[in-house]
């Protein structure tokens, strides 16, 4: 695809500590090429370190692509390399500072080439698409509860309220191999995308997300309204959103 044929993209990013946390362990990144959200975990600020390292890896990937003469031929190969780099950075940091052992982070990232998104996902941050008035979830939560739902052992309506719904079975963890889900998604004019941490989805409904993405005139408006809704719902966790609109 030539630059003249490429679909335009507008985007916004926002992050809020929420109502109950003293620090923000989420990190995010957004440029015309790459969008990403990471939600860190681990005590003594280790979660903040882990999510920042993952986003630094995504930013460095974006910078390398900006300097390249051509768009990447394989979005998923490039994203997979970026996730592997993020994992390596966590390992290196723990090797330098053993007190950070056990830190980890989710990572949900989208790489844009003008008409297609490559999506890399690990953990329970989420990606959504609003297209032609219908909201769909592009990612699958890597949680124990979601596994039980997939196996038919727990109804989805119970999973949404289960106290263990945030227990992860896959994430970027120091000392563990990175195993992201990788997929491609062809964009259409008018598409609206959301990447978010579970600080949003734990206290909002798909209907609320649908309403905001449908009615918000700009990505900035959508981000602000989603964060407000999460805080009005108690804001028990950090809240981070990246919203992108494909031009009509």
Automatic annotation (TrEMBL):
Q: Output the SUPFAM superfamilies linked to this UniProt entry.
A: PP2C-like
CDD domains assigned: PP2Cc
Q: Which residues form the PPM-type phosphatase domain?
A: 10-246
Q: Which domain of life is it from?
A: Bacteria
UniProt-listed Pfam families: PP2C_2
InterPro entries annotated for this entry? PP2C, PPM-type-like_dom_sf, PPM-type_phosphatase-like_dom
Residue ranges of coiled coil: none
Q: Which Gene3D superfamilies match?
A: PPM-type phosphatase domain
UniProt-listed PANTHER family: PROTEIN PHOSPHATASE 1L, PROTEIN PHOSPHATASE 2C
User: What is this protein's record name?
Assistant: Serine/threonine-protein phosphatase
């Amino acid at each position: 695809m030539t630059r003249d044929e490429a679909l335009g993209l507008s985007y916004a990013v926002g992050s809020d500590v929420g109502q109950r946390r003293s620090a923000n362990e989420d990190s995010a990144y957004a440029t015309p090429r790459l969008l990403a959200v990471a939600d860190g975990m681990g005590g003594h600020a280790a979660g903040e370190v882990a999510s920042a390292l993952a986003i630094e890896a995504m930013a460095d990937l974006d910078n390398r692509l900006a300097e390249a003469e051509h768009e990447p031929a394989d979005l998923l190969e490039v994203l997979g390399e970026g996730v592997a780099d993020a994992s390596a950075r966590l390992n290196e940091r723990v090797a330098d500072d053993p007190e950070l052992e056990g830190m980890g982070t989710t990572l949900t990232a989208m790489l844009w080439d003008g008409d297609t998104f490559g999506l890399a996902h690990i953990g329970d941050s989420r990606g959504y698409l609003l297209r032609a008035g219908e909201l769909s979830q592009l990612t699958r939560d890597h949680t124990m509860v979601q596994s039980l739902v997939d196996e038919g052992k727990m109804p989805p309506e119970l999973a949404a309220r289960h106290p263990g719904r945030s227990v992860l079975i896959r994430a970027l963890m120091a000392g563990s191999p990175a195993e992201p889900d990788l997929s491609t998604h062809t964009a259409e004019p008018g598409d609206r995308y959301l990447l978010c941490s579970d600080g949003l989805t734990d206290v909002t409904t798909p209907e609320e997300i649908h309403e905001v993405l449908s009615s918000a005139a700009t990505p900035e408006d959508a981000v602000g309204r989603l964060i407000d809704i999460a805080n009005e719902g108690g804001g028990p966790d950090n809240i981070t959103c990246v919203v992108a609109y494909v031009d009509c």
